[in-house]
Amino acid sequence: MTKTELLAIIISTLEADLKLFFTAAKAAHEAATHEECAPDNKYDTTALEASYIAQGQANRAQEIRVALEAYRNLVLQNFDDESPIRLSALVILEDEEGNQRRLFLGPYGGGMKIPAAAGEIVVITPGSPLGRSLLGKQVGDELQTEDHALTTAFTVVQVV
């Protein structure tokens, strides 16, 4: 999968997520303002709770809009073995046992998983611990990650 194809999949996924959250926010707003949600007494918080849900859904939709705009404007950079890792790098890490992890350093959407023939690609951001530790590294550099008190050493084997 090329980075251009990867970018198109990320944008498509974010567009689908935006549609989903927009629909959810609209439904929650309608529930919050529906006459059946009008409080029967001072202890009835159904409408209030529905409004909190509506606001949360709307906030998430706005976050997705920002991410979508960032990806639509993202300029994909070309990397070689001498290039320091930065935004838009597709990085392949390998641990001591030969297991590989494929990571795309994007502006938003950390944790998004993109299926690919050569193996799943996980989107990470420069703000994540792994993203921060990758910035500036090059092919051949080593780094360590810590996951639930388990430390794993990785080597950067390829940057595209």
Summarize the model shown.
The protein is of the alpha+beta class. It has 3 helices and 6 strands.
**Number of helices, where a helix is a run of at least 4 consecutive DSSP H or I residues:** 3
Helix content: 40-55%
Unreliable spans: none
Structural class of the helix and strand makeup? Answer: alpha+beta
Strand percentage lies at: 15-25%
How many β strands by DSSP? 6
The main pleated sheet reads as: 6 strands, mixed
Based on CA atoms alone, the radius of gyration comes out at: 21 Å
Strand order of the largest sheet: 3-4-2-1-6-5
Number of domains: 2
Shape: elongated
Describe this structure in words.
The protein is an alpha+beta fold and 160 residues long. The chain has three helices and six strands. A hairpin with a 6-residue loop joins strand 3 and strand 4. The longest helix is centred in the N-terminal third of the chain and has 31 residues, at 3-33.
Notable traits:
160 residues, alpha+beta, Chitinase A, domain 3, six-stranded mixed beta sheet, 6 strands, 40% helix, elongated
